[in-house]
């Protein structure tokens, strides 16, 4: 079905101009998808699209999807049902609507999506979204049900338009994509492909552009970010620590973080960077997934619980105040009560500032999905509940210990209450404090006076 380029509108001065096309974007899943959505909307802005938060106004609706667990993947289909109804209603009013599915469900399911949801016009994988303008032009030319999930030879990052002005003083920067670790529960090696690291010079360039536009804090993203090995101008490969050292030289960039890391790739130079590099924030997201060595082996994690303990000890020796965050899976096939107790014990022993915990979700095509027996759903649910209680008690402890301390907060945006701003501590917690909007983008000392499980509040040490 052909699509109009843009509706014409007659303005008060009598001139006819194109009304902007509107794009609605919903992002599921991880920060890599948040980064990809930003880059897609920049690519579309160059084509005259403006963003809308109302799908009923959208000429183009994109779902940027996540395939990591079944629940996230299934949500896409319920959203597609709603978008189909909107498309039909808009069609009755003479308006075209393009529905596109991007991200990891697009990559994993491809044309199956169009079969299950025929209202979908376009399926575009995470390695192909720089081709969105060209794909939209092909739809306008009369093609339909386009599925673009190849891993093209050209570099998507080089093909994308330059970064637009920053909307926030914090930004994500994807430095690495894909994963070669093949944990037996995980779809990432299949959806995002093998590890690829962007060259140092391209990243320094993109970081400089972001800093020129007001970004103060960068979070370097990668599915296995500490496996980063990007090409340097000298021809050899830089480690993540090497990249961080390069980025830290950028004047005006104040804070650097990175996620997600694998314990096997926590090298000595990266641990040393936590000791020596002031701009590298004292926060580390380091999944351990499970604490039983038998389960870890079945997960193909390539480390034991003791390896993880020893690693944490080395990291804490380098940076004693570091806030640790982790991912944990409960109910992996074959996980016994005793195995699960080991997970609880490790959580208590380490004392995480933050943790994401998940019920194991069998993913098609992954080795663990066919392991017999799977853990029953009610057992998984009970384990998750117990684990979450424990990790939440951990948040309260970590946050509570900051009450009375004065910490530097980078204010990011206005808070819900008038006169209040929200920012982040070096340890990544959200911090609320009364301060003028002129302080957005500034790092200000805040004395913490109260702590909740998910945020801190305090007063700015500077007179306002
Ligand atoms: N089921 C449950 N959780 C999963 N994760 C990855 N795959 C699965 C799965 N099949 C979790 C892991 C990973 C995080 C991003 O998602 O904990 O670190
Ligand atoms: Fe998935 Fe992370 Fe394991 Fe890679 S290291 S396979 S992304 S869980």
Which features would summarize this protein structure in a list?
3 domains, five-stranded mixed barrel, binds iron/sulfur cluster, OB fold (Dihydrolipoamide Acetyltransferase, E2P), binds 5'-deoxyadenosine, 464 residues, Rossmann fold, alpha/beta, pyruvate-formate lyase- activating enzyme, disordered N terminus
CATH topology of the largest domain: pyruvate-formate lyase- activating enzyme
Number of domains: 3
**Spatial order of the strands in the main sheet?**
4-3-5-6-7-8
Task: Please give the count of helices.
Answer: 14
- Distance separating the two termini: 58 Å
Shape: globular
Q: Mean pLDDT score, rounded?
A: 92
Say how many strands there are. Answer: 23
The CATH superfamily of the largest domain turns out to be tm_1862 like domain
Structural class: alpha/beta
Query: Helix coverage percent of residues?
Result: 25-40%
Ligands present: 5'-deoxyadenosine, iron/sulfur cluster
The appropriate CATH architecture of the largest domain is: Alpha-Beta Horseshoe
| Name of the CATH class of the largest domain | Alpha Beta
Low-confidence stretches: 1-15
Instruction: Name the quaternary structure.
Output: single chain
Largest sheet: 6 strands, parallel
Beta percentage is: 15-25%
Radius of gyration: 23 Å
Could you explain how this protein is built, in words?
The structure is a single chain. With 464 residues, the chain is of the alpha/beta class. It has 3 domains: 8-148, 3-Layer(aba) Sandwich (Rossmann fold), CATH 3.40.50.12160; 156-400, pyruvate-formate lyase- activating enzyme; 406-460, OB fold (Dihydrolipoamide Acetyltransferase, E2P), CATH 2.40.50. 34% of the residues lie in helices and 23% in strands. It has helices at 31-45, 70-92, 103-109, 111-116, 132-140, 156-159, 188-191, 200-212, 240-248, 268-276, 293-298, 305-318, 337-350, 377-400, and strands at 8-10, 16-18, 21-27, 49-51, 60-65, 98-102, 122-124, 146-148, 170-174, 176-177, 196-197, 217-221, 230-231, 237-238, 255-259, 283-285, 323-330, 354-359, 406-414, 420-424, 430-434, 443-451, 455-460. The chain has a 6-stranded parallel sheet, with helices on both faces. Strand 1 (8-10) and strand 2 (16-18) form a beta hairpin. It is globular and about 60 Å long. The chain starts with 7 loop residues before the first strand and ends with a strand. The relative contact order is 0.08. Mean pLDDT is 92; it is low at 1-15. Bound molecules: 5'-deoxyadenosine (5AD) and iron/sulfur cluster. Iron/sulfur cluster (SF4) is lined by residues 179, 181-183, 186, 188-189, 223-224, 262.
């Amino acid at each position: 079905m052909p699509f109009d380029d843009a509706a014409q509108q007659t303005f008060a001065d009598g001139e006819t101009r194109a009304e902007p096309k509107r794009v609605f974007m919903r992002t599921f899943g991880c920060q890599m998808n948040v980064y990809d959505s930003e880059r897609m909307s920049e690519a579309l802005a160059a084509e005259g699209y403006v963003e809308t938060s109302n799908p009923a106004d959208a000429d183009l609706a994109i779902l940027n999807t996540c395939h990591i667990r079944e629940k996230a993947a299934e949500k896409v289909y319920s959203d597609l049902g709603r978008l189909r109804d909107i498309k039909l209603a808009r069609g009755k009013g003479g308006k075209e609507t393009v529905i596109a599915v991007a991200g990891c469900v697009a990559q994993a399911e491809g044309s199956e999506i169009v079969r299950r949801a025929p209202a979908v016009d376009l399926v575009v994988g995470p390695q192909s979204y720089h081709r969105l303008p060209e794909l939209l032009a092909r739809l306008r030319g009369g093609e339909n049900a386009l599925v673009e999930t190849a891993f093209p030879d050209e570099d998507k990052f080089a093909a994308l338009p330059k970064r637009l002005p920053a909307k926030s003083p914090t930004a994500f920067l994807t430095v690495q994509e894909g994963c070669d670790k093949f944990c037996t529960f995980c779809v990432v090696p299949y959806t995002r492909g093998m590890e690829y690291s962007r060259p140092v010079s391209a990243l320094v360039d993109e970081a400089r552009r972001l800093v020129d536009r007001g970004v103060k804090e960068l979070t370097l993203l990668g599915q296995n970010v500490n496996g980063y090995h990007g090409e340097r101008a000298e021809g050899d490969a830089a480690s993540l620590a090497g990249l961080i050292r390069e980025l830290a030289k950028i004047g005006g960039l104040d804070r650097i973080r990175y996620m997600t890391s694998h314990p096997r790739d926590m090298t000595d130079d990266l641990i040393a960077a936590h000791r020596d590099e002031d701009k590298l924030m004292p926060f580390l997201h380091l999944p351990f997934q499970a604490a039983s060595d038998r389960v870890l082996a079945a997960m193909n994690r390539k480390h034991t619980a003791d390896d993880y303990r020893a690693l944490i000890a080395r990291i804490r020796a380098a940076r004693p105040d570091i806030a640790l965050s982790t991912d944990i899976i409960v109910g992996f096939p074959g996980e016994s009560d005793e195995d699960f107790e080991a997970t609880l014990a490790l959580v208590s022993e380490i004392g995480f500032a933050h943790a994401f915990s998940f019920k194991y979700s069998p993913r098609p095509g992954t080795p663990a999905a066919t392991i017999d027996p799977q853990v029953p759903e009610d057992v998984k649910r009970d384990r998750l509940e117990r684990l979450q209680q424990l990790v939440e008690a951990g948040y309260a402890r970590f946050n509570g210990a900051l009450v009375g301390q004065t910490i530097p907060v980078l204010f990011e945006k206005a808070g819900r209450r008038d006169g209040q701003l929200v920012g982040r501590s070096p340890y990544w917690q959200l911090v609320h404090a009364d301060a003028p909007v002129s302080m957005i983008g500034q790092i200000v000392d805040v004395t913490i006076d109260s702590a909740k499980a998910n945020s801190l509040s305090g007063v700015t040490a500077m007179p306002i």
